[in-house]
Amino acid sequence: MSKLWQKTTNVNKLVENFTVGRDRELDRQMAAFDVLGSLAHTTMLQSIGLMDADDLVLVQRELKAIYADIEQDNFIIEDGVEDVHSQVEMLLTQRIGDAGKKIHSGRSRNDQVLVDLKLFFRHQLQQVVQETNKLFRQLIQLSEQHKDVLLPGYTHLQVAMPSSFGLWFGAYAEGLVDDLEMVLAAWKITNKNPLGSAAGYGSSFPLNRTMTTQLLGFESLNHNVVYAQMGRGKTERIIAQALSSVAATLAKMAMDQCLYLSQNFAFVSYPENLTTGSSIMPHKKNPDVWEIMRGKCNRLQALPNDVAMMTTNLPSGYHRELQLLKELLFPAFVDLTDCLQMATFMLQNITVNKTILDDPKYAYLFSVEEVNKSVLNGTPFRDAYKQVGLAIEQGNFNPDKNINHTHEGSIGNLQNEQISEAMDKILESFDFKKVEDAISWLVK
Ligand code: ARG
Question: pTM, whole model, 2 decimals?
């Protein structure tokens, strides 16, 4: 018998395939976390007298063996087994008999999958934070390195005012700081324990939910058991918003890169082996990496909407389509971390063009600089504006290209130090250490 819930009737094969869907493949990614949940749950069961000490030793020894197999990529969800929860319980029962059948007391697959997902998401968010931080450091380094190299700033895609590579790289760095505020919010909401909510309405066993909260390194718990179940979908939506925020920053940067790499701009370049060629045009060096990144990150920005649409009118309580959220979220983490890594890699190899502004078409960038200079010498702004405007019209505008911007966050005062401090402060708010310690204790 392959179903945990199967008693006498065999479920129709078509129904089984349709409802199991991609669970066998996707649940594999939650397997280690399913075992961690069971380690915490069984420790708690023993503490309240629902499992004796000998059974606990037996069960935990096997759970740790399964955990090691998972870590070594030596674990599959067998055909005919519904999901990871069933596979782990089946392995335990095969190996240690009745003791294995006791681990499900006071628990339902509904809170089991909830806790697995929270642990999995926590792990994935940690990767996102670490990769975002690497990209951030790379951007700040480039911003400092090229702070004196000027770049045309555009509004309406028309030449506007002087900008700099210091500003451009630093802008994306600061953007990532705000994105991590969103990720921190997602982390906080994720980092609460739903275990013990069982099918969504609690249990008549005197479960110690505070204990499993501590064992799993959660910050606190979803107190209300009905709300714990409502967290499915809500957690995903909030995470999707956070991922989408990072993705939006990356997508914009990718678009800038494509534009700046175009021959009509030629502001930046990359070694030839980081660009791709054309099968027909022998001269081509295309920015495919940035284009794929732009596409993936634009698609990621649809994720909150996908999650919202899938869950929008569900009443409280468990519903099976919640399972489909895995299909949305799991690949999203892979895409985003890939994009973050590729962005960092590409930027390690970027060359900036130091002579962009020598081209006469960029002379007008300095019109506001000239106006401001007159204003500082006592001419009212509107008069100074007219004088410069007339000089441009008459073709005798010869700007001084030395610029002097001093205020906070401007070309001459990037405030990268303050931006880095803000980043460090956010990074300190993620209690990764507490999580790692809890997990090491559970599997030791
Ligand atoms: N695979 C299921 C999911 O992801 C596990 C929970 C099944 N619960 C149930 N009541 N059928 O939601």
Answer: 0.94
